[in-house]
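We treat protein structure as text, and this decision shapes the records that our systems exchange. Because each token names a local backbone shape, the row as a whole describes the fold. For reference, a complete record is included directly beneath this paragraph.
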Amino acid sequence: MSGTPESAGRSGRPVRGEPIVERAFRILGAFAEAGEGLPLHLLAARAGLSKSTTYRIAAQLRSVGALERLENGDFVVGLQLLEIASLAPRGHGLRAAALPYMEDLHRVTHQHILLAVRDGEDAVLVERLSARDAAPVKYRVGGRLPLAQTGIGIALLAHAPEQVRREALDGAPDSSRVRRFMAAVLREGVCAMTGVNPLHAGAAPVGAGPASMVSVAAPILNRRGDCLGALSLVAPDEGRSQVAARIALRTASLAISRSVGS
């Protein structure tokens, strides 16, 4: 894997002295799916580190519960990370306020209800409620979504700092379309966009659900107008009117804002 800090070294140590904490997070960030197990060679490849370095750091992460190892030798994310992540105030506090309203939306729609916060140039999913018969989607709690490519991301992007908006739009395949959705968020407090189900980005497996999905999203603002997060409904695009969903999402986002403020 060329271009990584230790790709040119033979000792397993980064050429530019990358701190061990950064290498540890590269290893933890190699896991892409919930419950995913990775053998050492694949974990090292995804992290861009040598196998010896990966094994040494992974052993330290196991000792503190951040990683666990299965009987077949694969590494998996440890429960200690879940315990620590649940304490994050920016996601956990908002989640506690939003959950009752998310549950109401979930009971009515029987589809995916998402809650996300912005972290840099990504939307990080902090909660997801999904019905058993809801269309399969490739979203997971803790997963990152590009701001300019999802409804919930655009709801966050519309209230992001100018520098973040500019960089996100520069990397967007259709920046003019994103700008229209951002304008809708600022004007109406909600936007609705239709796009390809992430599960159909490549060859869709049998039973992977509808190829087209609609995402209705609304930002959650505090009394000063700062964006705390965003709420979204993701459902199959069946050509139905989105008016009811827009009203429901806008109403819920305002109620969460009031709840956080109180």
